[in-house]
Automatic annotation (TrEMBL):
Keywords: Bacterial flagellum, Cell projection, Cilium, Coiled coil, Flagellum, Secreted. The keyword Coiled coil applies. It comes from Ferrimonas balearica (strain DSM 9799 / CCM 4581 / KCTC 23876 / PAT). GO terms for molecular function: structural molecule activity. This is Flagellar hook-associated protein 1. GO terms for cellular component: bacterial-type flagellum hook; extracellular region. The gene is flgK.
Length: 457
């Protein structure tokens, strides 16, 4: 009756093959799913060692750890680059918009001053200068408000990212615990390993990670410098706290068990990009626009202080005023300053425009900009910084496009090994169906032979 046993084992194997194949087809579009293969081997023994059928040894998850890790690395870079490029693009738009352009405001102010050269005592042209000065101060305020709004958005995203990362860390630790429990029973479901790989991939988009595998099937996850994120079944948690030097900004810490680490380095991924942009490009923009506001106000006020107003008197007030703690956000024409107070003359005589000429010459005066690291006129400085923003924005976009392409390539490489090929699985269905039918025929034939043998007695 060896034939009957062979047929039954083959029937069972064909059934299992069909079940595995149908599961692959059902999960063809499931994110992170790795196709499965049934492992079978020939049974030893049988008549004269010819074998006694087939045995099912288990289910193999088709996955490549190197390709999976490659996706994690690419996800980190894509998350970082995309986030940074988005914010840099918005900053470039703010500085380059017509409504906020300091260059356009400076051109209008100096054009109004130039219109007063022939008739410095004319109230209408003086009032035009006052209007343009107020408009220019408003442009600084617009840029400052945009930067402040960006800072609030970045801080909100940082706090949201911390919550998201902590949730993902807890999820990985939970899956680790399930894997550990199943490992002790000698059978880890492939779906659990897929779920963990997918959870780690989602985490890697947020922060840069390193992983190691433990003997019990769990994995440890750390930051590049070794701070632990997941240790087996224990998860760490990130927290934010106000920066003592600037309470508007958050600092980051990491706690696991009774140990807390203050995170100083860039953590990579989307969360790292937020800190990188805030502490880098955003701060540079803020420093520059504040310095430009101070150079403008101090320069005009200094020149006007050397002249005489419409009544032949030294000016009683500065044209511009600002708070040194927030120059761009507080720059304005001094309350109570009137068109008559503009000190266009120097000797108090009617029609004197000598100080006005000094004001016009200020447009071409080279000033030292610490935020730029060079000397430039007011207009040149703004153009230089706008150009620098453009370069940074384009470079960030190129890096984002490159990172997205690298991630797509990594996903395609992984899918080439692990993803479900519906054409292949469709062929397998036919093959295993035929195998099932053939084994059923073997069983039927064995039964007929048995019945024939029985009739002989």
């Amino acid at each position: 009756m060896n034939m009957l046993g062979n047929g039954l084992s083959g029937l069972h194997a064909a059934q299992m093959h069909l079940a595995t194949t149908s599961n692959n087809i059902a999960n063809a579009t499931t994110p992170g799913y790795s196709r499965q293969q049934l492992l079978v081997s020939a049974r030893p023994g049988g008549f004269m060692g010819a074998g006694s059928g087939v045995q099912v040894d288990g289910v193999r998850r088709v996955a490549d750890e190197y390709l999976t890790a490659q996706i994690w690395r690419a996800s980190t870079q894509a998350g970082f680059s995309t986030t940074k490029a988005s914010y840099l693009g918005k900053t470039e738009e703010v500085f380059g918009s017509k409504g906020a352009s300091i260059s356009m405001g400076l051109d209008s102010l100096f054009a109004a001053l130039n219109s007063s050269v022939e008739s410095p005592n004319d109230i209408a042209t003086r009032q035009s200068v006052m209007n343009e000065a107020k408009s220019l101060a408003s442009r600084f305020s617009t840029i400052n408000q945009s930067l402040e709004s960006q800072l609030k958005q970045v801080e909100e995203q940082i706090k949201g990212s911390v919550t998201e990362v902590n949730t993902r860390l807890e999820n990985i630790a939970r899956i680790n615990k399930e894997i550990q429990r199943n490992m002790s029973n000698g059978d880890v479901p492939p779906q659990l390993l897929d779920a963990r790989d997918q959870a780690v991939a989602e985490l890697s988009e947020m922060v840069d990670i390193r992983t190691t595998e433990n003997a019990d099937g769990t994995i440890n996850i750390t930051l590049p410098k070794g701070q632990p994120l997941v240790l087996g079944t224990s998860a760490a948690s990130f927290e934010t706290f106000p920066d003592p030097a600037n309470p508007q900004m958050s600092s980051l810490s990491l706690t696991i068990g009774n140990t807390t680490y203050e995170i100083q380095e860039n953590v990579g991924g989307k969360m790292g990009a937020l800190f990188d942009y805030r502490d880098g490009s955003w701060q540079q923009s803020r420093d520059f626009i504040d310095e430009l506001a101070m150079q403008l106000a101090d320069g005009f006020n200094s020149i006007l202080a050397n002249g005489t107003d419409l009544n032949g008197n030294p000016p009683a007030l500065d044209l511009f005023t600002y708070d040194p703690d927030n120059p761009a956000g507080t720059l304005k024409v001094t309350d109570g300053f009137t068109a008559e107070m503009l000190a266009f003359g120097q000797d108090g005589t009617p029609g004197d425009n000598s100080n006005l000429k000094d004001l016009l010459a200020f447009a071409d005066t080279k000033l030292t900009f610490t935020s730029l690291g060079s000397d430039a006129t007011l207009n040149e400085a703004y153009a230089m910084y706008l150009g620098e923003l453009g370069i940074q924005s384009r470079q960030a976009q190129l890096e984002s496009d490159s990172a997205d392409g690298e991630l797509l390539r990594a996903l395609n490489e992984r899918d080439g090994v692990s993803a479900v090929n519906l054409d292949e699985e469709g062929i397998n269905i036919i093959v295993y169906q035929q195998a099932y039918q053939a084994n059923a025929k073997v069983i039927s034939t064995a039964d007929q032979l048995f019945q024939t043998m029985m009739t002989m007695f």
